[in-house]
Every structure is written in C-alpha cells, then in structure tokens.
Specification:
With 695 residues, the protein is α/β, with parallel strands linked by helices. Among the domains are: 234 residues, no CATH class; 150 residues, Reverse transcriptase/Diguanylate cyclase domain (Alpha-Beta Plaits), CATH 3.30.70. The protein is built from 26 helices and 21 strands. Helix 3 crosses helix 4. The longest helix has 44 residues.
Length: 695
C-alpha cells in the first residue's frame, strides 16, 4: 500500500492525475446513467443503450488510463505503439459493454456480480495491453505480486460495484456502486504502475512536458467528447420520457369524448380541493350531475347519437366554466363539477348557472335534443370531513334529486341521506344472506271459524342481520325487489315452507307470497313443480298468494303463469284485495281460489261506515263467485264479532295468533292446541252456539 501511494505522490504529475480522476468520475457517472436506461428497456432498444454504455464506459476508462500513464514521470524516453493503444481502446469498449450486458441479462442468479468481474478483467486486460505499447528507452521489470494484486482489486471492486447497483439495500447504494467502480479503475491502474520498475539506458533529464501535456489534453478532450455524447443522449432521452410521461398523464386523465377530466382526474382534484379548503380556511362545492333518460336516447337513436350528445354537452360545459371551476365526466352519463368557494360565498348563482348548463336543449347529430339532469350538492367541510365522505353525501343527494319529480337539485341532508345510506347498506347485505343462513320462517295461523280449526298458515320471512339485528320485511322486501335478490329469497321461502309443511302432524295448508318480480320468471312453474316433487308436499296443500298490482304489471303473462300453476294442483289466492287499481277486473280475469281482504279495511271497522260497507260487499261478492274470503289483521273481539256476523268464515290476525316460529306452530298442531288465546276460545264457543241456533 505504501509503495502504491508513493508511486502516486512521487512518480506522477499531480495535475495530470487530477485530470485523469476527473475523466474517470465523469465517465463512470455517465456510464451508470446509460446502464440504468438500458435496464429500463428491452430488445433492440436495450442493445442500443448497452452499445452507448460500452462506448462511454470503455472510452472514459481508456482515457483515464492513458492520461494517468502520461502522468507517470520517468528519466527514460517514452514512446507509444499506436496499434496497441487502439487495440486497448477497442478492448475496453467491448469488455465493459459485454460486462454491463451480462449484468443486466438475468441469465443466472449471480449475473450482476459476474458482469462486474468481467468489467474488472477487461479493464485489467486493457491496462496491461496498453502497457505493452508503452515503450521506454530502458529496462522494465515487473513485480508479479503487484500485478496479481491489481487484477484482483479490479475484478473484486467491479463485482462489488454492480452488486450494489443491481441489488440495492438503501438509497445510498447507487452512490456506492459508482464509488466502487472508480476505486476499481484507480486501484488497478496505480497498483499496476507500482508493479513496473524502469532502469533508463540513456537518462533524459529534461522531459518534453509540453508534448506530454498536449497529448494528455488531446486524449482527455476526445474522452470528454465521447462522454458528452452520452450525456447529451441521456438528457435528450430523459426530456423525451418526461414529455411522454406528461402526455400520457394528460391523456390518462382526459375523457376523449367530452374533453373534460375523467374519473381519475376527479379523484385527484377532489382530494386537492379539500386540502386547499383546509389550507385557506375556505370551502369546496361538489355537484354531481346525472343526465335524465340518457339510456332512452341511446336505445332510440343509437350509441352514435348518445356520443354526439355527450360531445356537444362537453363543449358547452367547457365554454361556460369560470375561474375556480372544474368539470369532469366520471361515468357514462354522470358528471362532477368542483368549485372553490370563499368562506361566506353563496352557491345560488353557481347552481343556477349549472341548471341552465345541463337543462337547456342542445343540438347534436343535426337534431335538437332535450337535456335535463338531476344534481346532488355537497359542500366541504359542511357536508363531509373527507373527500370520500363528501362524494358519498353528494351521491345521496343526487339519488334524492333523481327520485324527486319537482326539485331536481338537492343538497346533502344528514337525516334523509342517513336513511338512504342504511337502505344501500341493507341492499348490499341482502346479497348472500340466504347462503349465510340469516333468514328464518315464521308462520301466522289462519282460522276456520265454523269448524273452529286451523285451516292454514301463511309463511312469513324474517331477517336477522348480524349488525342491525331484526329487519322488518316491510323494509327489506322492497329493497330485495329493487336489487333483484327477491328471486333467490322467494325461492328459498317457497322451498323452506314446503319442506316444513311436510313435517306437520296435520295436513294444514301453507300459504306463500309471490312477488311481481317472481311472476316475471320464465321458469317459475317448473320451479314450483320441482320443489313439490323434491319436498313431497301434496300440491293441494300449497297456496300461492299474489297481489293485484303484481299481476297487472303484465296481465297476459301473469294469467298464463297462474293457470299453469293451478294445473299443478296448487291453489292461488288474491292478496290485499281492495288496495289495487282494478280489483274487480282481477276477479274477472282469473278465477282465484281465495280472496284475502286487506287488513286496512278491518282496522277501520270501529270508526268507518265505509269500511264496514266495503267488507259486506266483498263478502257478498265472494259468496256470489263461490270464492272464500279471508280477513287479515283481526286484532280484537269486536272485529271478530263483526266479521262472523257478516258471514266471514276465515280470519288471520293477532287475536287468533301472532306469527310464530316454525317449531312453535308444529308443536301446536301436534298437541291440537292451535287456539291458544283464551279470549278467542271463549268467543269461538259463543259463535259456535249462535251457528248451532241458526242451523
């Protein structure tokens, strides 16, 4: 080590050493930049970058060694072999290029280290080939130990350099890689120079330093020119990539149809707007806009007309936006507008302008097209303390705006939106509720008054949500009809009710409700037949209940289905009679096996002459048609007395029995104690006596 340092300090021109070091550091920096670019590409592009990498690395290393050799001071005359000098340059370029190519090839696990070793070996070969062309007027002796040490140092540090470059542990490894490569070159060269001992034959006491400097500067200039080409190439490539990335970012955030921002830009702008509002103690207004009947436009006039409509609307919106406003298309027919507000700035004028913007007819595809929209408004931080909350609340307001036939612009309303949010949560929770076993069946008995027996039981579904607890059917059934889950739920109820009814000790009839959605199923009749066959239930014991509204939605198809169901031996009952728009038309259209009088008429018996008259009329109608009438919602003995006096023979309600679990009903049927209510038993005895006297 002392010999090497002495060689550097004593035997070398310090100024030329500094020049060589500068060339080395600059060349390695450029080389690793080009190497990184090569690693980021593939195929022919990678080959091109590796070629530039080899040119920059090899030429800079060769220049470093050549200038450092010129810096070596000796009393003997020095000459250089041009052929060997050029060969050593070629070897440096090819060897370093091959080393970097091997390191980035991924051919085997230790490819980076092997590539670094190849670079170190190439530098050593270049150095000693160049030294063969270093002709001196004297005797040259070599210290073999230093020669071996120089080669080992170059190879080891080269391997370490690419190891740190391609297997970084910290952010500092990229600097460590460059430092290791510089040390590999320096250690190899100066250790190799220390291995050489020269005995001049004819000492020269006045070396031609001017020529040495001129040659050194010429070599250094050429090397810097080559490195400069690499630097310029890297900078141009970096700028090109930057511009391309900016263009891609811009394209990625722009909706090509309307020219407005897309959902990706909206997410970013919404977050930036909330941060801006917090930083400046101001507010941010978010307006969600949904175009009315856009699907109808696409269906009637085609997608081309729909695209033209959106394109024209985008032009209008872009033209009418003001400073501090930003519009984006975040869905097929949904837009979002952001406006930065001052602390006390009203939004009335802004919203009026938006209403005019989205609700004026516009011309597209050569036609004047109507344009209307619903708008949901939420303001940060008044209606949400985060971008996601603000967006969710604006969405809730938009849902109310779309449902309101008069007010098409709605602000966030905490109470109303909380209920809507709960509905959406239940809608999501309904998916898979059957598979998770969250439903259960209750049964409400139906009583035959003259026979004083249980004539049937209506299956009623109950849902116990893991978080919300019991959820009323009046709440979740409409939601299930909206999201389509009623099909799976109704199928489960039908199969479960039949399966349980088979186990009852007496052949009591079981009644199951069918929704309007189920009546639109193509395979409904086949499914009913399959369930009856699978469970073994006698078809005569199954009664399917339908409402007037459900069959009137598609009267022709519904009647066909009901006739096919009756052909299976299953009875069909008209549920909630009197609440539809065409009750008598329903009875004329289909010969129902039973009419179920809506509970609302029974509830109004005490104070409504009209309800009593309607009940009398329905009972007379049932007797005229030969169709039994069942009264729902019987809750007190006064109602029971009126109904029995009016000739109603079948009732259902809390007076007789509330809905009970399947097991409880089975036990009552088994014990023959279905009439558990003492008041009902007493009244039944009185009714029985009256019927006996009348008989």
């Amino acid at each position: 080590m002392y010999t090497v340092l002495s060689c550097i300090v004593v035997d070398h021109n310090p100024f030329l050493v500094v020049l060589a070091a500068a060339i080395c550091v600059a060349g390695i920096w450029v080389s690793f930049r080009l190497f990184q670019r090569a690693r980021d590409t593939h195929g022919a592009m990678r080959a091109g970058w590796l070629f530039l990498n080899g040119m920059a690395a090899g030429s800079s290393i060769w220049c470093t060694h050549f200038v450092a050799m010129l810096a070596f001071k000796t009393q003997a005359a020095v000459f250089f072999s041009p052929t060997l000098a050029i060969l050593s340059l070629f070897l440096a370029i090819v060897g370093t290029g091959a080393g970097f190519a091997l390191a980035s090839s991924g051919l085997f696990r230790l490819a980076p280290e092997a590539g670094g070793m190849l670079i170190g070996a190439s530098v050593a070969a270049m150095h000693y080939l160049g030294m063969l062309g270093y002709r001196v007027d004297g005797l040259v002796h070599w210290n073999q130990n230093y020669v071996v040490a120089s080669v080992v140092a170059g190879v080891a540090l080269g391997a370490l350099s690419l190891n740190r470059s391609m297997r970084p542990v910290t952010i500092w490894c990229r600097y460590g890689a460059k430092v290791s490569m510089v040390l590999a070159i320096v250690a190899l060269h100066f250790t190799g120079m220390a291995a050489m001992m020269i005995t001049p034959l004819r000492p020269v006491f006045a070396p031609a330093e001017d020529q040495t400097w001129a040659l050194a500067l010429a070599v250094g200039g050429v090397g810097l020119m080559v490195m400069g080409m690499g630097i310029v190439t890297a900078l141009i490539d970096h700028r090109t990539r930057t511009v391309a990335d900016e263009d891609l970012q811009r394209i990625a955030e722009i909706d090509p149809l309307t020219g407005l921002g897309n959902r990706l830009q909206f997410s970013r702008r919404l977050e930036e707007g909330c941060i801006w509002a917090d930083s400046n103690d101001t507010r941010l207004c978010l307006v969600l806009v949904n175009i009315d009947d856009f699907k109808v436009l696409n269906d009637l006039r085609g997608q081309t007309a729909g695209d033209a409509f959106l394109e024209a609307l985008g032009v209008r919106v872009n033209a009418l936006l003001e400073d501090g406003e930003l519009a984006m298309r975040i869905g097929g027919d949904e837009f979002a507008i952001l406006r930065r507000l001052k602390a006390d700035e009203p939004v009335d004028a802004f919203l009026s302008r938006l209403e005019a913007m989205f609700r004026r007819p516009l011309k597209a595809s050569g036609s004047q097209l109507a344009c209307s929209a619903g708008m949901g408004v939420a303001i940060y931080p008044d209606h949400g303390l985060s971008p996601s909350d603000l967006l969710a609340n604006a969405g809730m307001a938009l849902a109310r705006a779309k449902a309101d036939a008069v007010e098409h612009t709605q602000f966030c309303d905490g109470v109303m939106d909380q209920e809507e949010r709960r509905r959406r949560g239940l809608s999501q929770a309904l998916r898979g509720a059957v598979e998770r076993g969250e439903f259960s069946l209750f049964f409400q008995p139906q009583m035959d008054i003259p026979a004083r027996t249980l004539s049937g039981a209506e299956a009623l579904i109950r849902w116990t949500h893991p978080e919300h607890g019991p959820v009323s059917p009046a709440v979740f059934i409409p939601i299930a009809e909206e999201n389509g889950q009623i099909v799976a739920i109704g199928d489960w109820v039908l199969e479960q009710a039949c399966r349980l009814a088979v186990t009852w000790a007496e052949p009591v009839r079981v009644a199951v409700n069918l929704s309007a959605v189920q009546l639109r199923q193509e395979n409904l009749v086949a499914r009913v037949a399959e369930i009856l066959e699978t469970t073994g239930l006698d078809p005569a014991r199954l009664e399917l209940e339908v409402t007037e509204t459900s069959i009137m939605a598609d009267l022709g198809k519904s009647l066909t289905l009901l006739h096919e169901i009756r052909a299976l031996g299953v009875s069909v009952a008209l549920d909630d009679f009197g609440t539809g728009y065409s009750a008598l038309a329903s009875l004329r259209a289909f010969p129902f096996d039973k009419i179920k009088l809506d509970r609302g008429f029974v509830a109004d018996l005490d104070g409504s002459e009209e309800s009593r008259a309607i009940i009398h009329s329905v009972l007379m109608l049932g007797r005229s048609l030969g169709t039994p009438v069942l009264a729902e919602g019987v809750e007190n003995e006064a109602q029971l007395a009126f109904l029995t006096g009016a000739g109603c023979e079948t009732i259902q309600g809390f007076l007789f029995s509330p809905p009970v679990p399947a097991g409880e009903l089975a036990r009552q049927i088994q014990s023959g104690n279905a009439f558990a209510h003492s008041g009902t038993q007493r009244h039944l005895r009185l009714v029985g006596k009256e019927l006996a006297v009348a008989g």
